[in-house]
Amino acid sequence: MHGTSRNSRVAIFGATGAVGRAMVRVLEDRDFPVAQLRLIASPRSAGQTMSFRGAQLEVVAVHEEVFTDIDVALFSAGADASRRYAPLAVESGAVVIDNSSAFRLEDGVPLVVPEVNPHALANHRGIIANPNCSTIQLVVALSPLRRYGLKHVTISTYQAVSGMGQKAIDALLEEVSAPRTEDKTTLFPTVSSESHVPMAFNVLPQCDSFLENGYTREEMKLVHEPRKILEMPSLSLAPTAVRVPVVYGHSESVEVTFSSPVTATEVRTALESAPGVQVVDRPGESLFPHPRMAEGSGLTFVGRIRQDLDRPNVVHMFIVADNLLKGAAYNAVQIAEMLV
Ligand code: A2P
Quick one: 82 and 21 in the same domain? Predict the structure, then answer.
């Protein structure tokens, strides 16, 4: 039986990474009932200190017994590390909330966005998966539109480099500040360390690695994960995932086809009362969602809601959220709050 007491002993695995640091901040900001916080990373970071509620906590290196006496373990150290350590953490009595892709599509592992499918949590067996960042903001905005009959969704993303981790943030900032040069060592690492392309002042239609079918892994996450979370296994989705030189905040241009005519006003009204959504849609005043607006917020911002020019059953919208917060750390802590 996995459970958590009121004051939880919490571990963050991947604490020194971009998402791990955001997790520490969110626990503080939301006043999560933490009895004890254990910060875990690779041996490279052991001995570093990070501050939490005014105290300096030392980062410890991961090892097989590091999750002993932990109630809630927030994992964000990559899929390989999750596959290796999540079962050990569960065995030692922790509930794992895993931010990696390792278990998301497994039967028996709830894939949870609290505003959308909180009921899925009930059947967990120790591991709960946090969805992909682009998926979370998409389903927060699609879920309230289910009542109109979702038929097809076309998505183009504009994704921040922080989704690739702290090293990618550093690489972009360095590239922006350094004079442009053809020296390959200063260019941005896409996915494999052998291939480098400029990221500053550029747009790259690649997020994660390419698959046999011509789509990237990120794009296929945007197909499989919404189907599982929305419980619509045959929903049709067509994603294109693009990396842009933004540090924090993913944007998505989304075209929704309904099974019958739906107006932009109906969509706007449904979204205005939806949990976790803030409609920002006053184009006359240049008020629309953008990544700098979303930075630091746990909300999903939606705007540019408009009818298709030719098809009465199609509505377009623009969706923005902080990928490290609602797309990762904030969603994970929301799940933890539901467990406590
Ligand atoms: P470290 O900082 O010691 O390398 P990001 O996604 O920002 O790159 O962060 C990844 C996080 O996961 C970091 O805290 C990193 O620790 C940690 N991490 C990555 N791989 C491993 C691993 N194999 N074992 C332990 N920690 C890992």
Answer: yes
Residues 118 and 139 in one domain: no
Element (H, E) at 170: helix 166-177
Q: Are residues 245 and 187 in the same domain?
A: yes
Q: Are residues 112 and 233 in the same domain?
A: no
Q: Is the CB of 163 under 6 A from ligand 1?
A: no
Say if ligand 1 is within 6 A of residue 83 CB.
no
Q: Is residue 2 part of a domain?
A: no
230 C-alpha to center of ligand 1: Å? 31
Q: Residue 188 sits in which domain range?
A: 135-324
pLDDT at 216: 97
Confidence band of 184 (pLDDT split at 50, 70, 90): low
Residue 14 CA, ligand 1 centroid: distance in Å: 5
For residue 59, give the ligand 1 atom closest to its CA.
3
Please indicate, yes or no, if residue 3 is contained in any of the structural domains: no
- Please name which of 185, 194, 176 lies closest in space to residue 245, comparing C-alpha atoms: 176
Q: What amino acid positions are annotated as catalytic residues?
A: 133, 250
**For residues 296-325, average pLDDT:** 98
- Residue 46 CA: nearest ligand 1 atom is 3
Q: Does a structural domain hold residue 1?
A: no
Mean pLDDT, the chain, whole residue set: 94
pTM of this prediction?
0.95
CA of residue 22 to ligand 1 center, whole Å: 14
Evaluate: CB of 42 within 6 angstroms of ligand 1: yes
| Rounded Cα gap, residues 92 and 220, in angstroms | 33
How many Cβ atoms sit within 10 Å of the Cβ of residue 210? Answer: 12
Task: Kindly report the CATH number assigned to the domain that includes residue 286.
Answer: 3.30.360.10
Q: Which residues of 238-248 are buried (b: 16+ CB within 10 A; e: fewer)?
A: ebbbbbbbbbb
Q: What pLDDT digit, counting tens, does each position of 204-220 carry?
A: 999 999 999 999 999 99
